[in-house]
Amino acid sequence: MDDEQPPADTKLTRSKQRWASERKFITGARVADDRLPPGQHLVRDWPVLDLGRQPDVSLDRWRLTVKGLVARPVTLDWAAFLALPQTDLRSDIHCVTTWSRYDNDWAGVSTHDLLDLVEPRDEAAFVMLHGYDGYTTNVPLADFGSPQALIARTWQGKPLTREHGGPARLVIPHLYFWKSAKWISAIEFLGADRPGFWEVNGYHMRGDPWAEERYS
Fold it and tell me: Could you say which DSSP state residue 21 is in?
């Protein structure tokens, strides 16, 4: 795992901190479309957004560590990951920077199957997601275990590219996409909520697009 933390003082971070202080993109509009959240616009491509680091993680080096408040902590290599039940799902993407993309086809491991494998303890209520780029983001356990959430290894029938978080990334489609950590390396189960990288820098602790939970 890459334990180096991403730089906190960058042009991108400063811009997003300013957006948070200005409440940029917040419309306050009532939802007129149950598929497109307020303040969003549709795109056909898939924009690339990251912290300026795109780790190159080979399949033979990739590991996913599941730790914290679970009965059975585990570290999966790629073969063990592929040996878990594989799920195909279609979902939309909603980025906090206002773009949305419909009908993304994913294949990977459902978070439900991962939860069955590790068995979170009764006191587990939140999850911290860690990426190989040093990125972190937090989600409630209920959101992590959503029926549409999965650890994706393919997009539109092809292996997930490095620029989009390959070889594997989390996908939680009902939250803003900054919660779907790229280059996922560890999943940590927690008893209390704790902010990740963007949450420390002014973003919302949950990130519901339909409630415009962009900022804290």
Answer: H
Write the CB contacts of 180 (distance below 8 Å, at least 6 apart in sequence): 169, 170, 171, 172, 173
pLDDT digits (tens, 9 = 90+) for 79-130: 999 999 999 999 999 999 999 999 999 999 999 999 999 999 999 999 999 9
Nearest by Cα to 7 from 215, 174, 137, 197: 197
Q: From CA 3, how far away is CA 178, in angstroms rounded?
A: 19
Structure tokens given for 206: 């949950």
d(CA 10, CA 49): 14
Which residues lie below 8 Å from residue 11, measured CB to CB, with a gap of 6+?
none
Contact 20, 202 (CB under 8 A): yes
Where does residue 204 rank: exposed (0-12), middle (13-18), buried (19+ CB within 10 A)? buried
pLDDT tens digits for range 10-43: 666 666 566 555 554 566 665 556 899 999 999 9
Distance CA 161, CA 103 (A): 18
